[in-house]
Amino acid sequence: LMYVLSKHQKKMGVVVFVLSLIGALFETLGVSVMVPMVQAMVTPQLLTQNKYTSAFLRLFDISINSNIIGLMCVLVVIVYVVKNAYLTFLSWARAKYASKIQKELSVKVMHSYMKRDYQFFLKNNVGTLVRGTLGDAQGVYSIIYQGFRIVTEVLTSICICIYIFMTDAELALSVIGVGVFCIVLMTCIFQTIEHI
After folding, report:
1. Reported pTM
2. Distances from the Cα of 24 to the Cαs of 7, 41, 104, 120, 172, in angstroms?
3. How many other C-beta atoms lie within 10 A of the C-beta of residue 47?
């Protein structure tokens, strides 16, 4: 891909990567905002012990006795609306970036074909030329678009793991242990299936 992409396309790729990182942070915010809401429903007094929620409650002069659950629900809805609006924009930006590269690559290949002499076209049939013009460009589109989706998911997973470690390290180690066990188990199952 580094050979195929121009300098401008590489710069735009960095921009899309930064947008993906921001998207991962929004996803983490979406997960982390649920903890105070559940606390508000179960034991509202715990909100005063959390440094972030207690600062928020002091800032807006909200007492625990007031309708804290309603306020938390409204805040969660606002966070999720903003998060989903941003993720929609991120999906559009990824698709636009990959589509633009696909179009420019197809045009570049077509110009390459147009500069060939007549003998080249006698040796190659139309199907080969169409596959060369469209197929490779579609493959590059798929690699770029799915690659950025994977990057976003990996960044989201890393951010959520960091959040879990910051809030409850014991839970984080338990989740990692279960995850490693599941990976080992699935690897053993797939190896057994391959030998059958």
Report:
1. 0.72
2. 26, 27, 29, 49, 18
3. 20
